[in-house]
Each structure stands twice: as C-alpha cells, then as structure tokens.
Amino acid sequence: MGKRWVAAAVGLAGLLGTTALADSPRTWRDLNHNGALDAYENPAVPTARRVDDLLARMTLAEKVGLMLHGTLPGQGGNPIGLGQSYDHDGAARLIGSGVNSFITRLDADPAHFAEENNAIQKIAEGTRLGIPVTISTDPRNHFEVIVGASSSGGGFSKWPEPLGLAAIGDEKLVENFGRIAAREYRAVGIQMALSPQADLYTEPRWPRGNATFGSDPATVSRLAGAYVRGFQGRANGLAPGGVATVVKHWAGYGAEPEGFDGHNYYGRNAKLDAASFQRHLAAFDGPLAARSAGVMPTYVIPHGATRKGKPLPPVGGGFNRPLIEGLLRQDRHFTGLVVSDWAITNDCPEQCRAPTAEKPQGFAIAMPWGVEDMPESDRFALGANAGIDQFGGVADPAPLLAAIKAGKLSIARVNQAARRVLALKFQLGLFDNPYVDPQAAAHVLGDPAVQAQADAAQRAGQVLLENRGGLLPLRSARKVWLSGVSADAARAAGLEPVDDIARADVALVRVATPHELLHPGAFFGSRQHEGRLDFRADDEATRTVAFAAARVPTVVAVDLDRPAVLTALKDALALNKASALFGLFGASDAVLLDLVTGKAKPQGHLPFELPSSAQAVAAQDPARSDDSRNPLYRRGAGLTYR
C-alpha cells in the first residue's frame, strides 16, 4: 500500500464520514505520514500496545499537550468559543502546540456543526503524529443555558432538566435519553460529555442544582449511573460508538453556604461534616459502578470532609490528593481519566477576587481555590501530583513544562496521564476515523420521532402540587387569560386566549423561581440565579396570581430551577376554591397545556423538598438533604388526575 493511496483514502473518509474507513479492512490512516502501517495506526492491534507505540514516538512537549483540555475558539477569536463557526487559524495554533482535547460551545445547525468539527480533525491530521482531537461539550439537551454550565444550539432534542428526569425516577428512561443524546453528539463529531452532575442538591439556594438529580443520594446514584450507561453504550464502560462521560463534581459541591457557587471567589468554600460528606460521596456510586470514563473534581474547598478520620486539606478538589488519589482511586478503584474543572490553575487577581459593577471581572476567570497565592507552575504540579490527568480550560503547556524542569513533576507522572488520555482516544475510535457525515447529522438531529419521546418525558417530568376543587384537567373551560404562556400554544391546544380576564373561564400563569443579582460584577455571579427563593406579596408574580385568583379559577406553573418557597402563591390561590399549582422541571408551553387540558396526566414527584419560608431556608444545613423546618411540600410530593 503506497503513501499516496493511503492519503486518498483519508481524504475520502473526510468527505464520506465513518464508512470509508470503518467498512474496509484495507484502509488505514497514515497519521505520521511515513508510508508504513505503524502499530498505533493499526486497528487490529490491542489498545495497550497502540498506546505504548505512540508514547514511544512522542516528545515530552507532545505528552504535556495531552494534559491540557482547551476551548475551541469561536469565530472572531471569541475566547469562550461562542459563535456559529470556529476560528480555524486560532484552532490550528492550539493544535500545533500539542493540545488535542477541547470543549466546543458552537451554536450551529447540525450539518454545519459536523463540518466544523471535521475541519478541526483535518487540522489535527496534519500534525507530526496525526493525533486526533477529542471534542467535549457541556449538556445541550435541556432548557437551561448558562455559559460555563450548559450550551445551546445544534438542533439537539429537548428533554426535561435532570431534575425533571429525577421527578420521573425511571432508570430505563434516563438510559434511553443517554443513548439518544449520545447518538446526536457523535453525529456532529462530539465524543465526550462533561456530565452528568452527580452532585447532591443539599443547599436550596445553589444555582447549579438544576442539572443534578435532586437531594436523595440513592436516587442520584441510580439515575446518574443510568445516564452513564446510556451515553457510554453499555453497563460497564465505554462501548464502540459511545460517548465518554465525565461525572462531576467529586465531591461535596452542593454544600455551599448561602448557595454561593464555586465558580466565584466568594463561593469557594463548602461546609460539610464527616457524616454528610459520606452522603455526597454515595451519590457517585452508580456512575462509578457504570465505569464512567472520566471524573471531574469539584472547585470548592471541602471544609469538614474527612478520609479515614483525617480532615482533607483546605484546597480545592483539583489540588486535593486525598480526595482524588485516596477516596476516588484507592478506595473506589477508579482507573479512568481525571479532568479538572475549568481554569483552576489560572491567576485570580483582585479583579477576579473582588469584582464590582464598576470594575467587573470580565474574562479574568480563575478558580485556584486554596492555592491563590501559589505560582502558576506550582499549581499545575500540585494538581497533577494530586491526581489530575488533564487540566480543563487551559491550553498553554509552558507552566507544566516549567514544573517538570524544576523537578516538581516527574516524567513518570506525565507518562501516566498521557497514557490515560490516549487510551480513551483509542477507545473512542478517533485514531481510526474521527470524521462524521454532515448530511447524516442533519437527519439524526431534529428527528420528530426523537422529539416526540423527549416531549413525552417532558409531560411525565412535571409535578402537580395542588388541584383544589378538581379544576384540572380542564373540561368545559375554553376561554383562557394568560400570563407568561404563549397565546399561540394555547390556540394550538384548543383554547381561546382573551385579553380581558372578565371574559375568561380560567387563568393560566407561568412564573420563574425568585432570584437576586447579588454579585453583578462577577462573571458567573452575574449570570447565575442567587439569593432568595421566596415569593413575596409585592412581587409582580404574586400580584398577578392574586389578581387572577380573585376573579377566575387559576392555574399557576412555577419553573423550579431551585426549590422555591411557594407559600405566598399558595395563599394567593386560596382566594379561589378552584385552583391548581404545578412545579415545572423543563417543559415547553405546549407540554404544560397538554397537562392542563388533560391530553396527558402529571406523573412527576418532587426531587427535593420545597421550604415553607425564607427563615427556614436560612436555618437549614447546606450539607444535608431536605432538612428545613416544616417544609411546605416534602420530597416525593406529587398528584395526578383520577
């Protein structure tokens, strides 16, 4: 087989997708351009031997490049990767420096998304050893979109939030969701899911809880395990064609006082004790048993957490050797890849530590908690020696190389990390063919039959909390006064929207859980829902509900991205003998109207308790599940129609 023929086969693969290489045993990729079939290029050779062969060919700088997980830059050089296309020149510079793992945040139609990811693989193919790129993403199949936590775009099917999947509680459904989402990921050229969140949701004000499976460790463990099995394609590890999962955030992330999040300097501390910490760890049992390909340690400093009776050191999870090498690898026998959360090795200057509205944080993003005053190269050495194989959100190999030169990081540790990164690339099939078919992607994503399954899950994942006077399902009412709900969706459901509530048979009001903008200068704090959870008498939402309930039977639906205090709304609804109250966990207006009109029955049960007052929220222990005094609704509450 000549070099020229091999190159033509590779080019054909780029045009036709996976079939050109996968279906023919005679084709192979001459990744190092030497015209010979080397062991690491040979699909018939066992993975361990392929890894050994490739490692022996790599320079130290190339191995260090494997330990970085950067961001594919967006068009115009957008530093966090937003846009409809990549900055190809910028990507080429990063790949040329040896980095070949990246998160994507593109918002593009499926075919173009696939073409852009193919272009990235083509750049990688031209490097000295042709090492393919692993492309990862934050979740894309839900409603909530927050930079740094989730992404949008690409035509992915839209499912309930993970809290909604927890409200259903069906492992088979979650596993099926994972299989479908993984097929969509692979269709556009994404091979790694930076999910699921197996964090235990114990502090109700915490803004990251929407992506968890709730407050019960057994439920979280069970459903996060199903998520991993679905995405990875089998019960005990990564199957060919599956998507590697990186379960996060090991461990105790949800136990943050006042709910302030660990992306921010003011949220760097978690408050635990030995007993509560064990419950946070137990939530990871299911995904670890399913052999998640990766684990991501938490940002926060786990104060009060212990291992074998000894306190963990007061540093963030990515620098915490007892947390990673002890609790994860030794005690739970994890052998996969440990990927740090993003930007833990960056400097955090005053602009990062104490931003203001006048002098905001901007892109001075860093989370080096507990080691803020340590030199950058020392942070890399500390993290790698603690057990980090790959550093997220960074793409400059110089600090790691400096740590090695200074004798603070051994070559043996670099080889160990590089081996784990390469083994996963081989398991994903990237060395044999990383290309995808853009036309096929356009058919896989946007499939109406798949969205029908997702819509059914949306219907099942919503919780009916009150149905006074048997108001629901609506039988004869047809004229509806709306607030926060699409009039077009109401018409499609067979209802007649009216502007004058005096003409209405019923009112339908949709509102969001209250929140406050407490840290407007912080990059993440300005985007996250922080602060109070309680509806108050002078809130517009409360006034709207009271206005409607004083006049007509009223249905209220609250989007519960956090556990809202619904006492004021419940009191307002008491003005009418016929009223209903929903808790929503990722639902379109069409799905809500299907539940209201009886086309579907509510089936969900609360994945956490709903406190009764702001005082009860303030008094609860941030590390313990469902421990507020006299909750208005307990975890598991939920009604249906007779």
From TrEMBL:
Domain of life: Bacteria
Keywords recorded for this protein, A-Z: Glycosidase, Hydrolase, Signal
GO molecular function, one term: beta-glucosidase activity
Pfam families: Glyco_hydro_3, Glyco_hydro_3_C
Gene3D superfamilies documented for this protein: Glycoside hydrolase family 3 C-terminal domain, Glycoside hydrolase, family 3, N-terminal domain
SUPFAM superfamilies with a match to the protein in the record: (Trans)glycosidases, Beta-D-glucan exohydrolase, C-terminal domain
Stretches for region Disordered: 617-642
Class in the EC hierarchy, top level: hydrolase
Signal peptide: 1-22
Enzyme Commission code(s) on record: 3.2.1.21
Any one Gene Ontology BP term: glucan catabolic process
Domain Glycoside hydrolase family 3 N-terminal: 111-423
Domain Glycoside hydrolase family 3 C-terminal as annotated: residue spans: 498-641
The reaction(s) this protein catalyses: Hydrolysis of terminal, non-reducing beta-D-glucosyl residues with release of beta-D-glucose
Protein family per UniProt: Belongs to the glycosyl hydrolase 3 family.
Protein name (Swiss-Prot/TrEMBL): beta-glucosidase
Organism: Novosphingobium olei
